Amino acid sequence: MAMVTEKMIDEWVAEHKQEMIDELLAWVSHPSVSRADLAAPNAPYGEDCRKMLDFALAEGKRFGFRTEDYEGYCGAVISGDKKREIGLVAHLDVVPEGEGWLYSPYEPVVVNDFMVGRGCSDNKGPGVLGLYLLKFFRDNEVPFNSTLRLMMGCAEETGMADFKHYIDVLHGPVPEVSLVTDCSFPVCYAQKGGFDAAFMIPAGANIVEFKAGLVRNSVPDLATVTISGITAEDARAALEGVPKVEIAKAGEYIQLLAHGKAGHAAFPDHGEKKNAIVLAADALVVLQEKTGLDLRGGKFISERFVTPFGDGLDIQFEDEMSGELTINAGVIKKVGDMLHLDIDIRYPVTDDDQDIQAKLEKAAKEADGELVEVGISHPFYIDPESPMVSALMSAYKDITGDDSKPYSMGGGTYSRVIPNGISFGPGLAVGSHKPEFMPEGHGSAHGLDETLSIEDWLTAFKIYALALVKLDAALDEMQ
Ligand SMILES: [Zn+2]
Fold first, then answer.
1. Ligand 1 midpoint to CA 345 (Å)
2. Ligand 1 centroid to 131 CA: how many Å?
3. Which run of H or E residues covers position 376?
4. C-alpha span between 125 and 458 (Å, rounded)
5. Cα 331-333-337 angle, rounded to 5 deg
């Protein structure tokens, strides 16, 4: 039996560094983009994810651990036989590589102490760390009162249906506490909830088409509305002085183009409007007032999305631990006589999703429309003063010397899906190594030529090793 010291972790990591790098190179060579559209029996996210999961589980077995496969949604590598479990959670799926790589996305290489390849940092690097953490504790016979469960999902990047299915349908084992290794250090103690839905609203007789946006979680920068019953000259005259819109002829109709500014749905700012759908809707209101055309769908959007903070829908809310509610009109199209508008709401930890839903339904009904396709991801919160968080914070500080405090965020990780899943690392809060050799726009997690600093990765290993020991002890004390 061995007590874990920093020195012991350092020595073990130095001895195993090359082996860990080789392991990660093998993982990154799998092009495991999550493809629910290519689902097959036992492979709900396509053959590539299935092969990646098979490989990770085979490696777990080769290391001498037990493994479990949850119908291809996710899998686990398990070490120990204690009743209480601590989880380590990573994902094996990657975002599509995109065009313009300087390196080969699935033939990873090591350059200047950085690995380059799709998924090396998000999130296969942390997956390999999990496997080696299990090995580290087992090989060194570190006494643990918890079984360690490395949980690996195959659809994190596409909405986390993998672990939703694991929890809700397969009722897979849920550890007492889990570390979600897909974020930044130190501890993320709060994540806003996610409320996705779509409004179906009567467009109005003179709206022929209304198009904008590709995904609900981005602010669209261009919206186009095709309008009947008016000439381009008359429309231009009516819209004199209305900002950020222009009118073009489109056959027998006219087209209104609104120019906004792209951005992430979770981070709107106060001040001038940037959402092209809302800018177009504001112009439609003016046009309707001045010409008598029926453009009522525009009026609904203009009034209900008057701010990106929910004021127009009476759902504005703010709390100290997680900030303001945000709402984004992400994608719009015309379906029959109706406008179909996809929205993305991030609601504060202490907010009430039922109340939000009731108010959105009321607004839709008042416009003779309805609210459809509601999907809710509950917020995450853990008391930043709790013994579990204290254990993690102290391990982080011991290894890095950094005094950063626990933080909150609007984005979502598996913490929203896996009960008691605390997002903790592996990105370093301070002093992280940047891939200086990469040109502008290359080297980031979802970008071209994704990189992983091997030094930072090994630092994360040390933090996790110490944190798991402290967490196990904190759980002993809580019982
Ligand atoms: Zn990720």
1. 20
2. 17
3. strand 370-377
4. 10
5. 145
pLDDT, one tens digit for every residue, the chain (479 residues): 568 999 999 999 999 999 999 999 999 999 999 999 999 999 999 999 999 999 999 999 999 999 999 999 999 999 999 999 999 999 999 998 988 999 999 999 999 999 999 999 999 999 999 999 999 999 999 999 999 999 999 999 988 999 999 999 999 999 999 999 999 999 999 999 999 999 999 999 999 999 999 888 889 999 999 999 999 999 999 999 999 999 999 999 999 999 998 888 888 888 889 999 999 999 999 999 999 999 999 999 999 999 999 999 999 999 998 999 999 999 999 999 999 999 999 999 999 999 999 999 999 999 999 999 999 988 999 999 999 999 999 999 999 999 999 999 887 899 999 999 999 999 998 999 999 999 988 998 888 999 999 999 999 999 999 999 999 999 999 98
Q: What is the distance in A from the centroid of ligand 1 to the CA of 49?
A: 15
Q: Could you tell me the distance, in angstroms and rounded to a whole number, from the CA of residue 342 to the centre of ligand 1?
A: 24
Using a cut of 0.90, tell me whether the model's pTM lies above it: no
Kindly give the distance from the C-alpha atom of residue 91 to the centroid of ligand 1, in angstroms, as a whole number. Answer: 7
Distance (angstroms) between ligand 1 centre and the Cα of 146 equals 26
Q: What fold, for 6-192+380-478?
A: Aminopeptidase (3.40.630)
Q: How far is the centre of ligand 1, averaged over its atoms, from the C-alpha of 164 (Å)? A: 16
CA 402, 403, 409, 414 torsion-angle sign: positive
Same fold, 6-192+380-478 and 193-376: no
Gap from CA of 18 to ligand 1 centroid (Å): 24
Q: How many angstroms does the Cα of residue 293 sit away from the middle of ligand 1? A: 47
Q: How far is the CA of 156 from the centre of ligand 1 (A)?
A: 7
What is the distance in A from the centroid of ligand 1 to the CA of 108? 18
Residue 377 structure tokens? 């991801």
* CB contact at 8 A, 94 and 32: yes
Q: Tell me the CATH number of domain 193-376, given options 3.40.50.300, 3.20.20.70, 3.30.70.360, 3.20.20.80.
A: 3.30.70.360
Tell me if 311 sits within 8 A of 321, measured CB to CB: no
The whole-angstrom separation of Cα 224 and Cα 245 is 10
The domains of the chain are located at: 6-192+380-478, 193-376
Cβ–Cβ < 8 Å for 360, 300? no
Kindly give the distance from the C-alpha atom of residue 446 to the centroid of ligand 1, in angstroms, as a whole number.
9
